[in-house]
Amino acid sequence: MQPYAMDLDDADIRRERQKARELRASQWWKRRCAKGVCYYCEQPTSPKELTMDHIVPISRGGRSTKGNVVPCCKECNNNKKQLLPMEWEEYLNEARKRSDISAD
Ligand SMILES: [Zn+2]
Prior knowledge:
flat; binds zinc ion
């Protein structure tokens, strides 16, 4: 058992994963990735390197909707998995500070 897992049944999770696949194939998603920017750290990232991330994970009750999926770089995706929401906020603030500095 994961400590933060919600009481979701497998059918819900399968449905949301399927919806995510459909979104990933959509023109809407391709346009979002074409901008080439990670939603979280705001670093320029090649569209090919961007992955789909659920802001609220499916396992926490998040849905595969346009408001809940964002393109993010592999680094953010890897880091986010290991962090609690509050720690993730701190990581983001740091990442955005770095991106402000490099933008000057
Ligand atoms: Zn990123």
